[in-house]
Specification:
single chain; two-stranded antiparallel sheet; 36% helix
């Protein structure tokens, strides 16, 4: 549903805010939580991300989050060398649960109600993923965090984001990265790289643009679910995307 929410936020008091997207899924990489650290969770970074989420929560957006685990798994990657792939993937899923709990707590501290559901059953720690209950949380206005990817090895958290986005009936998947969109070359190594304003799923797959994996892109394409790639480190970037302002790169049919 697309509409306008009237409310109080740091951007205005009792002013109607037209939302381009009402229900969205945010794909947040584990690496985004590291800040400038080599691995782990930067408290300053996760608190800043929580404040970005609070701004859009105050606008009335129904927000689900799929979170990765690279920031934690990177710290043990050396020990995982030569390990069975499925075992290593399960370790990565457990890392996403740790990140989800950290984000849930950071949101709690800025007065944003959040719930975590895991594709792996760890009921002493987090709820199992149950689709009807997840939908109810979104309808109640709670931020919903999905952990443990799809619960299966050999699938990335990007694919989990596409899958959960389709299951939740979101209007768009927001892929949060360290750069402000999709480029024709790595902008960190090629200063002349050009950013795409928009491109098709087929082009992203054909040109092997590694912002999301091909399975995730193909699933979004088949479900007619657009993807916006933007920088989570730009202040107000998430809000700008949800208001339909020109931000990042749109990947669509």
């Amino acid at each position: 549903m697309i509409g306008a929410k009237v409310g109080v936020s740091q951007y205005g008091v009792n002013q109607p805010t037209p939302l381009k997207y009402q229900r969205v899924l945010l794909k947040l990489s584990g690496e985004a939580l590291m800040g400038d650290d080599a691995f782990g969770i930067s408290r300053q970074t996760i608190e800043r991300i929580a404040l970005e989420i609070r701004v859009v929560y105050e606008l009335g957006v129904e927000l689900a989050v799929v979170i990765g685990g690279g920031n934690i798994f990177r710290g043990v990657a050396g020990g995982a060398a030569g390990m069975d792939r499925a075992t290593a993937d399960y370790m990565g899923m457990l890392a996403t649960v740790m990140n989800a709990l950290a984000l849930q707590d950071a949101l709690r501290q800025v007065d944003v109600p959040a719930r975590t559901q895991s594709a792996l059953k760890i009921e002493q720690v987090v709820e199992p993923y149950i689709r009807p209950k997840a939908l109810r949380y979104l309808e109640e206005g709670k931020v919903l965090i999905f952990a443990a990817g799809t619960g299966n090895p050999f699938f990335t958290t990007d694919t989990a984001a596409a899958l959960r986005g389709a299951e939740m009936g979101v209007e768009v998947v927001l892929k949060a990265t360290k750069v402000d969109g999709v480029y024709d070359a790595d902008p960190l190594h090629f200063p002349q790289a050009q950013r795409y304003r928009a491109l098709s799923f087929d082009q992203a797959i054909r040109d092997n643009l590694r912002v999301m994996d091909a399975t995730a892109f193909a699933l979004c394409r088949d479900q007619k679910l657009p993807v916006i790639v933007f920088s989570i480190f730009k202040e107000g970037g998430l809000r700008s995307v949800l208001l339909g302002e020109p931000e990042g790169t749109l990947v669509h049919l």
